[in-house]
Amino acid sequence: MKLATLRDGSFEGRLTLVSRDQTRAVDAATIAPDLLTALRRWAQVQAPLRALAAALEDGRADGAFNFDPARCGPPLPHAPQWLDGSAFLNHGRLMEKAFNSPPIPHFDTVPVMYQGASDDFLGPLDDVALPDEAQGIDFEGEFGVIVDEVPMGCAAADALQRIRLLVQINDWSLRALGPHEMKTGFGFLQAKPSTAFAPLAVTPDELGPAWADGRVGLRLQVLHNGQRVGEPNGAEMNFDFGTLVAHAARTRRLSAGTIVGSGTVSNAARSAGSACLAERRVIEMIDEGAARTPFMRFGDRVRMQALAPDGGPGPFGVIDQRVVKAPA
Amino acid sequence: MKLATLRDGSFEGRLTLVSRDQTRAVDAATIAPDLLTALRRWAQVQAPLRALAAALEDGRADGAFNFDPARCGPPLPHAPQWLDGSAFLNHGRLMEKAFNSPPIPHFDTVPVMYQGASDDFLGPLDDVALPDEAQGIDFEGEFGVIVDEVPMGCAAADALQRIRLLVQINDWSLRALGPHEMKTGFGFLQAKPSTAFAPLAVTPDELGPAWADGRVGLRLQVLHNGQRVGEPNGAEMNFDFGTLVAHAARTRRLSAGTIVGSGTVSNAARSAGSACLAERRVIEMIDEGAARTPFMRFGDRVRMQALAPDGGPGPFGVIDQRVVKAPA
């Protein structure tokens, strides 16, 4: 089933179910007022939500209406935690070159992960207000999972079973600020402004065989000002989501609604292109001696969509955002 | 005024005002049900809260009762963000030696700050369940501030005016995991389990002249199993809280209720002792060639209290916690 959060002026928005073809929707607030509440009561609400989703699919749902992604906020406007890995080693290796930073120890065997801000997420079509083009404005196309409660010390196989929903993410990044923050050892903070999400959070079964081995096996198409950047496939993730969730929970418990991201989707095959500009720039440096592609400018747009194998609409819907200058 | 959160089985607990001498309390839930709600409506609730606090002080408050810190959770059980600086350079320099890590660039002029988990805070007397003594269990005594909304790009002087409450913090740390996480550049995650707070969040005026220059000018007494570790003074903070809040808000807005910490309180004078074991251990290494003091063991306790200049109870109350083994 596909869940969305419609903006209605409330703090958490309104829980909504969306049909598989993304044309119809139905209010689900009688089952749970918002998605965070639903996740906290998942054992109780899953069956009624699935029943309502089936009714919507069959044209039997009372009060169904046309789905309009423009009315959507992020599926979870606020999450208990937002933890982002870097599980595509190809991306990490390229970023080491881009930032001229030393190799990360045990990078092949121990996931890396930073803690991001989870109180001010952006919706799929929201403008992104940032202070300064000189900070190296970049997008990062990612997949992510939303989990139920996860106990401290949970094993990866068990953690995989705690995944309730899959999401598609644009992890906005400021590349001029990242290298300094990495050198401090304290991690990304200023380099990671508010993160954006595609409108639909989906149960893993919604992806069919594309959800396999704890990975989203779909290509993520990324366009910058309408021009192709790439469409790398999520199946190439070196650590699966169960491993990432277990990493996050090693010394803490995770609250229901915690989001864990994959890091930038990236494939070893150059033909796949990239899901961020920094990666393209470092490939240009390697291949051509210098980066040609600039970072984003105010007014630029980025569009991201996971591609359905059957050519239909991407299962998570579309992120399409414009960068604007923040008011001084 | 002094605010506390009484545990009543609800998600955010119950907002309570506490008398200056910490003997009496009164329920404030008719003004705002919980502290997070109060912070989101601060302009509206501040005056009625102050009126009720004055009535409590004068013995005129209906329904006043004896204050029992054992009933308290952390002042904010869940915060929008928890951002912790390292604003005492003496601590940072010692930790570089402890971790044998390279000098942090621009450490004297640009604050460092990590993002912590803000969804699972501990109360002042809560046991701390951790998986493994071998992870180097340590406490860190800190001061912190809770802010109102802070706009992106806020200047330090303006940020200082957005501080609503002051708090006392125990930033639990796992020292065996920290150096690796610093080397990844992604920052602390597993090395920082749930953070604990003293029972009372206080308005800055409550400290009188001890709140000056954006710093808490009080000694923070730290005892490990009843033995003195130190009582360093918060006045020696190299970056004031306005600067720390502005650092956090450079590329993001902060939601009301965001907590910004000072990092471990630390003084250059050796006579002040330390507010964490790692610092004492590195001083032993420097002075005696080897660390003698072990990290904490299951069953150990730590007690922290800011010392009032007049010898009365510490303005934030007492943190007194025991480390226990987490269930497997």
Q: What is the compact description of this entry?
A:
Two copies of one chain form a homodimer. Chain A has 328 residues and is an alpha+beta fold. Helix content of chain A is 20%, strand content 25%.
Describe what this molecule looks like in 3D.
Two copies of one chain form a homodimer. Chain A has a six-stranded mixed sheet. Chain A contains seven helices and 20 strands. The longest helix of chain A has 16 residues, at 42-57. In chain A, helix 3 (89-99) packs across helix 7 (277-288). The first copy, chain A, has 328 residues and is α+β, with helices and mostly antiparallel strands. The first copy, chain A, has helices at 35-40, 42-57, 89-99, 156-161, 178-184, 241-248, 277-288; strands at 2-6, 14-18, 24-27, 65-66, 82-85, 113-116, 128-130, 137-138, 141-147, 163-170, 173-174, 196-197, 201-202, 211-212, 215-216, 219-224, 227-230, 259-261, 301-307, 318-325. Helix content of chain A is 20%, strand content 25%. The termini of chain A are far apart.
Residues in helices of chain A, as a percent range: 10-25%
Classification by helices and strands of chain A: alpha+beta
In sequence order, what are the helices and strands of chain A, one letter per element? EEEHHEEHEEEEHEEHEEEEEEHEHEE
Largest sheet of chain A: 6 strands, mixed
Quaternary assembly? homodimer
- Our measurement of the CA-to-CA distance between the termini of chain A, rounded to an integer number of angstroms, reads 42 Å
Question: Which shape of chain A, going by the Cα principal axes?
Answer: globular
- Percentage of β-strand residues of chain A: 25-35%
**Strand arrangement, major sheet of chain A:** 6-5-18-9-10-12
